[in-house]
Write a structure and sequence with these properties.
This protein is α/β, with parallel strands linked by helices. The chain has one domain: 3-Layer(aba) Sandwich (Rossmann fold), CATH 3.40.50. It is built from five helices and eight strands, in the order βββαβαβαββαβα. It has an eight-stranded mixed beta sheet.
Amino acid sequence: MTENRILLLSVDVDEGRMVIARNNPDNARQVVVMVPGISAGIDSMSTLTQRAEDLFRKLASHHQDDSLSVITWMDYVAPDSPAQARDARYAAPGAARLARMLIELPITAERFGRWRAPARTTVIAHGYGGLVAGIAAKQYGLQADALVLLGCPGAGVASARELRMDGRVYATPSDIDGDGTPAGVHGPRPDAPAFGATVLRPGPLSYQGDPVVRYVPELRRIVFGPT
């Protein structure tokens, strides 16, 4: 494959929704789905895809490694501000689309992919994106091996037990790398002990405000799974 291969999986220009993948997920052994929060959309595509590329390069064995695919999932109309993020209605339509995409990924991989087998899938949902993922898991089920609620102040559920998924749930402190979504509006903090998620602790301050960077060592273990 060629370096920096980017695939457009879906787009809705009118609503500003888009799904982009670094490498073909059908041919991957590990797939990471990044669900951004406040202000996500076509206008922020450059920043979000660069974060996906940065994560890919930190996880992949080399820059042409196509066994790993990182998807930037912007398939919902995100709130533009913390005030709008108090409203869960922004998350509901995207939750259905996220759940559907996660169902379709292993189907297309088994039919068209190189390995004819589903990849290990990790969802990393940032800030308000954690509410999207939480609603998706509660209402539709989340077909993923792991869910990381990154800087998420509330996932729309009282505990991880309400999330319908077979994989494990992880969380990070929302007051360190959040996106501005107000605390206490969409349920308890996922990193609270009573929530039941495995809490990831941050490393040094992240580069250029990227909330993912400081968790890379632990994310590597989650993405690649048990050895």
